[in-house]
Amino acid sequence: MGFNNLIQKIKTAWPKVLTILWFLLPAVFAMVKYSLGTKAYNNYLIYKHVFLNIVRQANLYDFYPGSYLYQNHYGPSFSLIIAPFALMPDSIGILLWCLANALFLFYAIKKLPLEPKAIQMVMSISLLEMCGSIQSQQFNPMLCSWIILAFVHVMKGRTAIAAFFISGGLLVKLYGIVALLFTPFSGRYRSMIVWMITAVLILACIPMLYGDASFVLHSYVDWYHRLLGKNQENIMTNFTDGMQDISAMGMVRRITGISSLSNMLFLFPAGVLTLLPLLKRTHYDDNRFKLFYLAQVLIGLVIFSTSAESPTYVIAVTGFAIWYAAFGEDRPQWMKWMLVLLFLLTILSSTDVFPSYIRNSLIKPYALKALPCVLAWGVITVQLLFYRRGNIDAAQTTG
For every residue of 363-397, which 3-state class applies, written as one string? Predict the structure, then answer.
């Protein structure tokens, strides 16, 4: 009885503990990174200088070894997001930046059309991967929240708000454009087109308020060329350090040793399989169907991108968590084993608790961090294509 009481107390306290951990851990990681010196928070310095370089009219995509390592890959509009933090001392800016990412994702998950217990499940599964991304001062948790919020607002018919979240994601990291796939659920196509054009123009031009207009316009051209170069770099480096192209394509290229394997062999069928569920219009009023589709989009966004790296997986893991929670309490045993696989290969493999020998000799060389999400995407796709209202395990209807 004593053990059972302890378990019950933990379950009762977990919602509050989860909320505390959600914000406490990012704050601790931010302060630890700052204390380790500039190399430890290099990503934040890159972000910060997107704003500073626009103000100075310095090329956003050149190397600046005196200020930070590597190159910036974010669009000029990102300067608007990072500006408030860039104007602060680094010790404060990095802390608030990390907390802002945690807050956005926290708020977005809370807005999902799920029961409170399911919301807690999504947050519990996503917590460690969110912290891993924030430990690298990454923008990905915020981007994930924007896609989710675009989904939420499309569901509520708030096309204008959704368009600004989609456009923001598009102009910062391109990924946000996938949220346009949710438009059929509202049916407001004309409204979305008008608001997308409006939002893109507004967000693209805002940097001109604090930077030279011609310089900002030229920076968008520079950004395009930088992204083309980045794609090729991602493919070429996946056989060296294993830190880029952690995708379905990268995993197959590494396992087979065929570096010339074309992305289109994956992207074309993935695109078709992402669009096909939208033909099932009779399920547009089914929240579970729409949440499954959100999960498919979030996971697919990562596993079919050559830019996918470990911190990007907060997006895919959140998608997995939404699918797992939306399925319901009577989920089959194989889904629970998929969750275990997700924790082992995707979430824990990037942490110090995972055996370094296995990580360095197996997980990284073959991009196996992607494997659980690739499997989940395939299962979700089958469930969507053979979805039947009221059938909890849609995949089982095929067999």
Answer: HCCCCHHHHHHHHHHHHHHHHHHCCCCCCCCHHHH
Q: How many domains does the chain have?
A: 2
Q: Are 50 and 152 in contact (CB under 8 A)?
A: no
Tokens in use for 133? Answer: 């991304």
State residue 393's pLDDT score: 45
Give tens-digit pLDDT for 168-213: 999 998 899 999 999 999 999 999 999 999 999 999 999 999 999 9
Burial of 279 (0-12, 13-18, 19+ CB in 10 A): exposed
- pLDDT value at position 388? 81
DSSP state of 342: I
Last residue of a domain, one of 215, 237, 259: 237
**Residue 346 has which token pair?**
């995707």
Domain range for 268: 242-399
250/195 same-domain check: no
Tokens of 170: 């598009």
pTM: 0.93
Same domain for 206 and 272, yes or no, is no
Name residue 266's amino acid.
Answer: F
CA nearest to 270, candidates 295, 244, 248: 248
